[in-house]
UniProtKB/TrEMBL annotation:
Residues 399-408 have a biased composition (Acidic residues). Residues 384-408 are annotated as: Disordered. This is Uncharacterized protein. It comes from the Eukaryota.
Amino acid sequence: MPSMDVKINKKRWYRPELTKRQYPKLGFSTKPIQEKYLEAAVEIVLKELSMGKDGQVYDETNDPVSTDWMVVLAWILDRMFLDRIPAHCLISDPSHLPPESLRFFHIDPNSVDAMIDGALSLANHMGQDLDRVAIKHGINRYLEYKSPNLTHRPQVPIYGFYLRSDLVTLHPDLRVNTTGGDTGRAPLLRHEIIVDGVMLGLFDCIPGQDFKTLNFTQPPHQQRFAAGWYLEADKLEISIGREFTVDAKHQDYSKPEEAWQKVTMFPRSEDDWFTWSTVPKPLVDGKDEGDPDADLRILHLPSFVQRQMDLLNANMVSFDDGGNKQDYFHDTVPNSALLSMQLNNPYYQLIIALDKEEASGQAAPSPLSGLRTAATGPVQELRSLRFMTPTTVPRVPQPDDDDLDPLE
């Protein structure tokens, strides 16, 4: 009996040696896992990794659940903003951007998708990369998400310009802004001098109702105070600038200068606005004891401001504001604010009309303006990633060990 028990126990624990084909396939590339992996990966990205600690989608204004996702999202967005992309990949030939030129361009979404797809494929040692697709789902959800604190989705550039000019070198802090509809979005997404003499600007819309003009303005710190615009020994010409006391939406500084805005002063003018003289100070017995006001130009205050305020009140016309007649300018007290505005030297501004209506009578706008939609309200194009199909590299089939002939 004891020997029989030992024999039974041996059979109980005995297992025949399995061949390689008989081992269950539990690797990452097996079919059962591949069929469920993408769905599970997308679910984890959308429900966990791409979320903020406040339960909302992470949109760079809240704290992320995953700091790794924060880094990946920021890196992808930098590529969509063309950051740290070699210049030869954006400008294929130097002749496309000659000196003293302004060139506009449209950002091809297919090129951006291909670039991001290739960037996410780095360090991939598998034949099929499903993580890349899951990351793109998270990026698209961020691009489609509208934060409760904002009135629009995240802005992504689709249009831009290159300015190559000595103006960029002389004025590196040149102000750039746009005019158009009040959309609540930032008009300029990226404004950077990428190399000496070359400026890059990116926008989230093409020329249209939201983007009518592109304006280059002299930096504020290079402006100065000046009593007039033309000075001779016996003449000073003054230009009265338009001022407004109404809302900004009713203000229009683009009208040509009218006759009442031009004032010419002479040393002996009646009702002079200045105390001035071009006569050198006389010397008495070799000492400077002459007229203390000689060879000086001094403003008569507050008379200087009062005269300009009177001209503005008399010549700035009125307009109809919803049935109510309202003056563009109305003030009764001369003040330092009006004085500083009038003494401010006019600044230089270059306005480029991009919309067809704004460019009437000028050179035809870019053909890209035809890409606009027929919508009448503010338009924000959804620029999401489109290459969502998993990339597969077919593997070379390898025979099992059991199929190999040791004599071959």
